[in-house]
């Protein structure tokens, strides 16, 4: 289990995705966006909207079962995008960089962008917005819901 959690709300995700779009704007034009499903789907939709890009391709890589990492499995390769030249790959984050390595091997000339990056995966990304520490688990809005939390005082153990 992670040492700490970083909760991302829908608002924050929208803001951070737009911040990524700003960084990518002058690096185009892009032939299209390749979303790494599933985590990259919503960021890719927001970025494609901001960059006025209508062509969206997908590649699906499964590397984690909840917080447990396994061997990366490509369950759907990209149908288009050739060697990736002129294409923009979007994922929600890089953690260890395992997923990024697999996708980069399939699309070696694409530009790889994520919203969040942990130190181990950072060298594999061309553009990102926010760095978080390696021992932090990012909680995305599609994996969470708002719930009651007891007052701090009630959660304290007696001294
Ligand atoms: O840098 P890494 O250590 O490879 O971790 C990052 C990848 O892990 C998560 O995907 P996951 O395998 O959970 O699949 P999902 O996007 O379908 O949820 C996340 O969306 C990234 O794609
Ligand atoms: O920190 C994370 N949050 C959500 N999914 C992930 N997949 C790898 N690392 C993470
Ligand atoms: Mg993913």
Task: Provide tags for this entry.
25% helix, binds magnesium ion, 159 residues, globular, six-stranded mixed β-sheet, two-stranded parallel ribbon, alpha/beta, binds 1-O-pyrophosphono-5-O-phosphono-alpha-D-ribofuranose, binds hypoxanthine
Describe this structure as you would to a colleague.
This protein has 159 residues and is an alpha/beta fold. 25% of the residues lie in helices and 31% in strands. The strands form two sheets. A six-stranded mixed beta sheet has the order 4-3-2-5-6-7, with helices on both faces. The longest helix is centred in the N-terminal third of the chain and has 16 residues, at 10-25. Bound molecules: 1-O-pyrophosphono-5-O-phosphono-alpha-D-ribofuranose, hypoxanthine (HPA) and magnesium ion (MG). Magnesium ion (MG) is lined by residues 36, 39, 91, 99.
């Amino acid at each position: 289990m992670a040492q700490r959690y970083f909760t991302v709300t829908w608002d924050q995700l929208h803001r951070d995705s737009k911040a990524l779009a700003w960084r990518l704007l002058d690096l185009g034009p892009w032939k299209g966006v390749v979303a790494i499903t599933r985590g990259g789907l919503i960021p890719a939709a927001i970025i494609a909207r901001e960059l006025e890009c209508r062509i969206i391709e997908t590649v699906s890589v499964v590397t984690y079962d909840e917080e447990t990492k396994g061997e990366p499995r490509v369950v759907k390769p990209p149908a288009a995008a050739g060697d990736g030249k002129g294409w923009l790959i979007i994922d929600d984050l890089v953690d260890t960089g395992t997923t990024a390595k697999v996708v980069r091997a399939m699309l070696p000339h694409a530009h790889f962008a994520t919203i969040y990056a942990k130190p181990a995966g950072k060298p594999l990304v061309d553009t990102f917005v926010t760095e978080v520490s390696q021992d932090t688990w990012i909680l995305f809005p599609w994996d969470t819901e708002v719930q009651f939390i007891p007052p701090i005082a009630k959660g304290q153990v007696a001294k």
